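TEACHING EXERCISE
Course module: macromolecular assemblies
Task: Read the component lines below, then compare them to the predicted structure of the full complex.
Student: A.B.
Group: 4
Components provided:
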Amino acid sequence: MARLKIDQLCEGQVVGAEVRNLDGMLLLPADAWLTEKHIGILRAWGISEVEVKDGKLAATEGDPIAALSSDEYERLTTEVKQCFAELDLDYPVAKQVFEVKLRRRVMAWKGSTG
Amino acid sequence: MKGPPPGIDHLIRAIPRSLGSYAPVVEEIERALESPRCSLPTMAEAIEKDPDLTATLLRLGNSAFYGFSMRLTTVTEALSLIGIQQVQDLIQAACIIDTFTGIPEGFVNMRSFWQHSLACGVCARALALEARVPRAEKFFVAGLLHDVGRLVLYSQSPKWAQQILARHGQQGTLLREAEVAVLGYDHAAVAEALLQHWNYPPNIVQAVGHHHNPAASLSARDEASVVHVADHLVNAIALGSSGEHRVPPLQRGAWERLKLAPELIPQFVASVDEQMEVVEACFLKSPEAALAA
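Instructor-supplied answer key:
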């Protein structure tokens, strides 16, 4: 799960937690698949950030992780996991740290392979 | 290895609190502060006698490290915005980096060590500012010094250090665990004793001494938690290294004490990256001359 700014949302991402306006009115339920129309509605209500499930995070345009083949992704995530003495990816802090490290590793690998 | 490992007191006794090339300006500042007519301009005059320090101070003052909206052009402006105590802390940081020289490259790469330490200082300060921990500026020095105990071990007890590093390399344990297995204490305990010996404020001493186990700190758990989290983040993004091969574990209680949202982590890392460029340029100016063996 990650909290994304409204400008980072794109069609096909899955909403992680229900989105309500300031009055508590439900705008989108959890697990909804985002459409352009949804994003427009959220913007109209002044919603600045939305929780999004990770499966579709990689769909963000220009994301270097999204461009990896499944073999490359598997190899680099395994390598990054081994860097940690302990790693519980169910703990949100550990997950954030892991994702930051993975992103840097992917960027470094892309840089080295041109 | 024959005989018992050296005691911590024995190790720290031989470490001078050196002022290195900054000695004249530090003494000048101390004289200015003791004078009943001490003022910002007289302090500035003392600092301006060292052109290198003046340039460093203005460069830091105009960087993302402070993020002031106005451009600083004089030392007096820098002193009034940054504060006298903080300027002294920055000079002290530069002195400490000068203190440890001549450590064999085989033990630790000194540039990488100080890069890791500076990044930990920058990150600890950023975390403390965000978490609104009192006297957040002090965390730069606390982060900078968190692993200084390793340099004491390498410089004062090279034979035992070799044994620690061999164990770390062969058995795949954390470097800290290898220290405890070989010596019965770790680098954090050595740093704690050294900083106490150098009369550092107790909260900094505790923050450094408990940076691997903040829950054990009796009087500075928040401070130790800040340094612990900063060390974890900086190890994870591999900004320099103090010799540890894997990222030491994060204590959940330490993060939770800071009451910060996990989603802020990418932002902290980006902020450390942004600040490190100038911090490294200011503090690691001549690695070949000052830091090499």
